[in-house]
Amino acid sequence: MKRIIAKGFPCSLKGRHFPTDVSNWERRLFQRDDVASLATQLYFIESQQTEHLKPKSKQEFEAEETKQEFQTLVKVWTKATSRFSFVRQQIVHPSFLRIIGMGEKALPLILEEVKERPIPSWFTALEAISGKDVASDATNIGEAAQCWIRWGQNEGYLKS
Amino acid sequence: MTEDEIEQCFPNLRRDDFKITSPTDVNYNCIAWAGGDTKNWWQPSGAKYYVWLRDDKSESLENYIENFKLLGYSEETESRDYEPEFEKVALYIDADGLPSHAAKQKDNGFWTSKLGWSEDIEHRTLECLEGDDYGVVKVILKRRRKGKEEADISKTKASEQIKNFKNLARNTVNVPKKEVDAVKGQTKKKTNKTDK
Questions:
Q1: B45 touches chain A (CB under 8 A)
Q2: Residues of B98-113 as b/e, b for ≥16 C-beta within 10 angstroms?
Q3: Which member of A119, A137, A142 has the closest CB to residue B117?
């Protein structure tokens, strides 16, 4: 059954057309409605398990690549600078500068980080990339984070 | 950071010399921690959501010393030893002579430090954290330890100072254009009435 499913079973199921190398007894078996129904369910489960193997669109592929690059840079930057107490010390690290260099495509990823862990240096990156100063009225880190998250949602970089 | 990672960052720090005393908290840094504040990030330069008690926004060591003097740390000392009648804060400077870290002495004679936006640690000596990252201890400031009642009053005063700073920041922010226009509109109406 698995063999037939692998050979594009759902297409053939509708009209009960089978690939040429399917034997007669297999054809007869799949003519039965109960077997066909079972095969459909199996196909559904199988396709869900192999979702990650499906070819991705160029856009999806690029987004995935950007995310991976961003996560790697954050990891390196965190390890190298989390012990430094001033924003001026944290933002000069090459990985951080590379994140700023990623430009607008880094905004949703930085905003997700701000949601999770509002490290003050992120506000500097957001200002540098967006050219905005949306947290000018904030009086502490938490308020500044909220200002940026709201901005991200309004601009469509973050889901509400 | 794990204990291993902390040890790797500070070559003078041995496992027996320190322990982690808090989880990561991005809301405050070492200066705030030494100043007794765990709700704000203290640094002179940058946005208004950073707390600084002085008008001077320079990154000079002098500015940091003066900032702590406002909290009562008015005397400089050479001694790194524990003196029961004094509370001490140590300021580190990096190779460029800029402030890089602050540590505060605890009642047990050990020192406590907030590592950037990571964890707080308790460490046996100030030398433990000296090295490439934090540089060297340049200044140790002290203030007379207060009795419990006095300490409570001082705590209230410190939070009032921070509150005042925040009010000041709020009052100096740009008033939204809408509000300015509304006020302008009212003023115009009044002027027109007076003209008539």
A1: yes
A2: bbbbbbbbeeeebbbb
A3: A119
Q: What angle do CA A147, B35, B25 make, to 5 degrees?
A: 45
Q: Do A85 and B1 touch (CB under 8 A)?
A: no
Of the candidates A89, A133, A141, which has its C-beta nearest B26's C-beta?
Answer: A141
Residue B32 has pLDDT above 60, yes or no: yes
Q: What is the pTM (predicted TM-score) of this model?
A: 0.70
Does the beta-carbon distance from B49 to A139 stay under 8 Å? yes
**Cα–Cα distance measured from residue A116 to residue A26, given in angstroms and rounded to the nearest whole number:** 54
Contact A120 B117 (CB under 8 A): yes
Q: What is the pLDDT of residues A6-54, one digit of tens each?
A: 555 554 555 556 666 777 777 777 777 777 777 777 776 766 666 666 6
For residue A51, give the DSSP letter.
G
Q: What angle do CA A18, A22, A28 make, to 5 degrees?
A: 75
**Predicted confidence (pLDDT) per residue in B139-196, tens digit:** 999 999 876 555 555 566 666 666 666 665 555 444 455 554 555 565 455 545 544 4
Q: Which of residues 93-152 of B touch A (CB under 8 A)?
A: 99-102, 114-118, 133
Give A77 to chain B, closest Cα distance, Å.
13
Q: How many whole angstroms separate alpha carbon A113 and alpha carbon A122?
A: 8
Alpha helices in A7-105 (DSSP H): 9-15, 24-31, 33-49, 58-81, 87-90, 94-101
What are the backbone dihedrals phi and psi of residue B140, each rounded to the nearest 5 degrees, phi first? -120, 125
Q: In chain B, which among 162-191 make CB contacts under 8 A with chain A?
A: 166, 169-170, 173-174
Q: Tell me the per-residue pLDDT of B89-99, one tens digit each, with 9 for 90 and over.
A: 999 999 999 99
Q: Which two tokens stand for residue B167?
A: 């009010």
